[in-house]
Amino acid sequence: MNPPARKNAVCNTCTIQLVNAAYRRAPWFRLVREPLKAGMRLMALLYRVDPGEYEVRTPSCYGCMRFYKVALKEKSGLFCWLNGLVNPHFDALIERILTEEEVQLAQAYARAAMSGELDSKDEDDQR
Description:
Helix content: 55-70%
Distance between the termini: 37 Å
Number of domains: 1
Oligomer: single chain
């Protein structure tokens, strides 16, 4: 029996890069993000989300919350509602913390990862 085909999680901006830059620039940002991340992991557990269902384009993408978020949007109306309330404020906060250049770099990285254009040096630079 063949294993089921893996789903794609489309990334327009590398969340890992954004968050790492925000943590460096504003260490207090962890106090905002970590409870949200824990809540998302709890909801993923309750809704039996398996991030392994999604194709991971690069090794640095392992553990990204994007997989949980995409799956929860598919499975949970409650999550969609909560995300609709929280996400605009979260994005606005990120935009205040980071420079436009940092956001653009995270967007370029995500595009390269999605198209398979990254090499091992790019992977190491992202960490």
